[in-house]
Design a protein that fits this description.
82% of the residues lie in helices and 0% in strands. It has five helices and no strands. The termini are close together. The chain has one domain. It is mainly α. Helix 1 runs antiparallel to helix 2, helix 2 runs antiparallel to helix 3 and helix 2 runs parallel beside helix 4.
Length: 121
């Protein structure tokens, strides 16, 4: 996931360069956007693993609550951090937000290349 994010951010920064918009704000936004997207995916995976452990222990309702709380907390933290970075004026808004949108296409491409019976991501 992190490698896919890095490739997408590099492609995004290449587009910024072609459009003549590549500057320090775009670079910083791209790097921080990559970091936030990877961190968000990591905490998503950790929350789901903890919820699955709870559900395996016959506490399905607790597992569901854990996933919901994890979603709310990750979204709130991302919003606050990204809002602060945008208000600082040091990051390009698009290069900061776009890496969060790269996650779904990366996962789709990863599924396409996954071999049958390979249950890891």
């Amino acid at each position: 996931m992190a490698v896919g994010q890095a490739l997408c951010v590099a492609l995004m920064l290449g587009v910024f360069a072609l459009l003549g918009r590549l500057d320090n704000a775009a670079l910083l936004g791209g790097v921080l956007g990559w970091f936030l997207a990877v961190l968000n995916h990591f905490f998503l995976a950790m929350g789901v693993m903890m919820a699955a452990d709870k559900a395996r222990g016959e506490n399905v309702k607790g597992g569901k609550s854990l996933v919901q709380a994890s979603f709310f907390l990750r979204t709130a933290v991302l919003f606050v951090v990204m809002f602060a970075l945008m208000k600082s004026g040091r990051c390009n808004v698009f290069s900061l937000v776009l890496p969060l949108l790269f996650t779904r296409p990366i996962l789709m491409v990863e599924q396409f290349f996954r071999k049958d019976g390979d249950g890891t991501s």
